[in-house]
Write a structure and sequence with these properties.
The structure holds two protein chains of two kinds. By secondary structure, chain A is of the alpha/beta class. Chain A is 41% helix and 26% strand. Chain A is globular and about 60 Å long. In chain A, 44% of the residues are buried. By secondary structure, chain B is an alpha+beta fold. Chain B is 53% helix and 13% strand. Classes of the chains: A alpha/beta, B alpha+beta.
């Protein structure tokens, strides 16, 4: 399998001298193309820090992140921005939407940053909204959506640039279990059908179990790295297929 | 992000917090209004003066006086404070300027560059009264003479006088004269006769010099309300005026005037030549320069006040944007996460500041324009304070003037935006996203 992200000796230290706090200690990790990886840990374990470093949102104190085998620390800022813009998608627990903008405006933000023309970005954003079944809401203001709808918009925003990797930080953390399931389904659907590599940070064991691989982090170190038994993975796929059938049916009825 | 998207977004962001933005714009507006108004008035008055300059005597007009012991400005000052002047055998005028000799007049006439047939010798005719041939009303008046080569009067009707003709001609200084002489309109007065009458001081016989009204001038601040007559009429009147004077008094002249070939000779060259024959030359520009200099000093002070207001407003811009950066910390983080570069983040905030400046400047300019135009219209109504000067506009808004003003205000606003924009661009995406 092809390595998409590789971390070597990743260490992150916050603060200086007496306030020094080591968030991550010598992490070695490889993530392969098409994997779905859960990074699990309690709050303060360093799981978010790890994701930020892998997503190149932050720089490690020591160690290196390789993307497709290339040393990310050697990238120029411009190339780093371009990489994040074109190849990564992000979903956050707190959504982070511009609440006074329309749904469509929110979704096309990464394309606007990528200097795409108006027509193209509108088309791509509408396509992305179709994926999350929210094309009817494109002109609504983001502030008027429910929590589940907001997170679906965020997923649309994460996939609008057709990314290779989606980083999701507690994507279901602010949602009730039913809406959370729907979000999970959407994410795994992307993983399964489009081959998007999925990296989910969570403390939710149920969500973690749906992933193909669970990495447990505690006190800044990886304490276990296991590939999940097939049957639970299977369950998720089954549930997905059921859901897909439901959506199709709903679409037909429209 | 494309530049057009960047501008749109900055403008959009600007009006997210409307109250705050409008208050900031209001502060800029005050500075912009002050600067636009004073600049427009300065332009308006200067262009009015310029148009009046032409009426005063064109580009090539030069006047010469006898050189005084003290310099001219000292002489004017002495006159104003009322310092007694020594009597000099009747050879100086009330300004202390010595009389010009016949020889000097001849030398003046022969200065290279002086156009000979424009030379006016300061022997000014006077009149007992002028009488309308229409309603027979009589009026007293001062008479004036002027060269005609490069003089372009602000005319209401008719043409300028001709000094090189045998006909007696007169140019009326304004509409009031037209009315008083009994004519319904300026056009009606053209071609009519105005009778110049001299009462002989010895025989009391009335001598009549009927002159043709050739034109009517627009009112001017520079020429007094004196009636302008051509050389033949002046000379005829002067001959009557001095009829009984002894020969020594007849020729006394204190000023000569002419036009010079200003395309070939500089004013300084002519003044130098005039100085060489013991006279002192003064061009229209010298006279106007004094008026303009005074006016410019006043408007410069007001413009400076405008800039002080702008500096105060730019602190408002800094404050507004710092608050905006604070409020939008998460949004900045999000945009950085999505790969927006530092420089683009910087420009999105700097642009916001510049747009604040732009809207403030435009608001100031618009209100200034409306107000000045309004006041100008009121001032030109039948009892407005500028009714006597129909060609004068209180303020002039030319693009050449207000575009630099708007750009300057935008530049100041941009500079004010540098600090908040730098702060925004330096935010770490993670810290920005974690910000509560």
């Amino acid at each position: 399998m092809e390595k998409i992200i590789e971390a070597k000796n990743l260490t992150k230290i916050y603060g200086k001298k007496s306030n020094k706090f080591t968030a991550l200690k010598d992490i070695d990790l490889s993530i392969y193309k098409g994997e779905s990886v859960a990074i699990v840990g309690k709050s303060g374990s360093g799981k978010s820090t790890l994701m930020h470093l892998l997503a190149l949102l932050d720089k490690p104190t020591k160690g290196t992140v390789y993307i497709d085998g290339n040393d990310a620390s050697k990238l120029k800022n411009r190339d780093l921005n371009k990489l994040r813009n074109e190849r990564f998608g992000f979903v956050f627990q707190q959504f982070f939407m511009n609440s006074n903008d329309t749904v469509l405006e929110n979704v096309l933000l990464p394309l606007k940053i990528a200097k795409k023309g108006r027509k193209e970005r509108n088309r791509l954003a509408k396509d992305a909204l179709k994926v999350v079944d929210l094309e009817a809401k494109e002109e609504n203001k983001a502030i008027n959506l429910s929590g589940g709808q907001k997170q679906r918009v965020c997923i649309a925003r994460a996939v609008v640039n057709d990314p290779q990797i989606i980083f999701a930080d507690e994507p279901t953390g602010n949602l009730d279990s039913a809406t959370g399931d729907k979000i999970t389904d959407l994410l795994f659907d992307l993983n399964k059908n489009k081959g998007v590599t999925l990296i989910i940070v969570t403390h939710d064991e149920d969500l973690a179990k749906l992933c193909g691989r669970i990495i447990r982090v505690s006190d800044g170190q990886i304490i276990s790295d296991q590939t999940v038994r097939k049957d639970s993975h299977q369950k998720a796929s089954e549930r997905l297929e059921k859901e897909a059938a439901r959506v199709k049916k709903a679409n037909r009825e429209k | 992000m494309k530049t057009s998207d960047l501008i749109k977004q900055s403008n959009h962001n600007l009006f997210r917090n409307k109250a705050r933005t409008i208050l900031t714009i209001l502060a800029i507006f005050i500075g912009s209004f002050a600067i636009c108004t004073t600049t427009a008035i300065q332009t308006g008055v200067n262009s009015f003066i310029d148009s009046q300059v032409a009426s005063f005597g064109g580009e090539g007009f030069i006047q010469a006086y006898g050189k005084t012991e003290t310099d001219t400005s000292q002489a004017i000052q002495d006159m104003q404070i009322g310092r007694p002047k020594k009597y000099n055998d009747g050879n100086t005028n009330e300004m202390g300027q010595p009389a010009i000799t016949e020889e000097q007049i001849e030398q003046f006439r022969n200065i290279p560059g002086i156009i000979k047939d424009t030379v006016l010798v300061g022997r000014f005719g006077t009149v007992t009264y002028v009488q309308s041939t229409k309603n027979n009303e009589r009026f007293t008046t001062q008479l004036n003479q002027m060269t005609t080569k490069t003089v372009h009067y602000d005319m209401v009707a008719g043409t300028n006088i001709d000094n090189n003709t045998d006909e007696y001609q007169v140019l009326l200084p304004n509409d009031l004269w037209v009315e008083s002489l009994g004519y319904g309109s300026s056009e009606e007065a053209i071609g009519q006769k105005l009778d110049f009458v001299w009462s002989d001081p010895v025989t009391a016989e009335l001598k009549h010099f009927p002159a043709t009204i050739v034109g009517v001038q627009a009112p001017s601040v520079l020429n007094s309300a004196a009636v302008l007559i051509n050389t033949p009429l002046n000379d005829a009147l002067y001959a009557e005026n001095v009829k009984y004077l002894p020969a020594t008094e007849k020729g006394k002249v204190f000023t000569v005037a002419a036009e010079y070939d200003y395309e070939k000779y500089s004013a300084d060259e002519i003044k130098k030549a005039i100085s060489d024959i013991g006279l002192e030359g003064m061009t229209v520009a010298d006279i106007i320069g004094q008026i303009k200099g005074f006016f410019d000093a006043i408007t410069t002070i007001f413009t400076a006040f405008g800039f002080i207001a702008l500096i105060a407003a730019s602190i408002g811009i800094v404050n507004t944007l710092l608050m905006s950066v604070q409020e939008r910390t998460r949004e900045i983080g999000l945009m950085k996460t999505f790969g927006m570069s530092k420089i683009k983040i910087f420009f999105s905030f700097a642009l916001e500041a510049t747009l604040l400046g732009f809207w403030g400047a435009i608001a100031g300019l618009t209100v200034s324009f409306l107000l000045c135009t309004g006041v100008d219209n009121v001032a030109h109504t039948s009892d407005g304070f500028l009714k006597a000067f129909p060609t004068m506009h209180l303020a002039e808004f030319s693009p050449a003037v207000f575009i630099p003003v708007v750009l300057t205000i935008m530049a100041i606003a941009f500079i004010a935006g540098v600090l908040p924009a730098t702060k925004a661009s330096k935010k770490n995406p993670i810290d920005a996203l974690r910000y509560e």
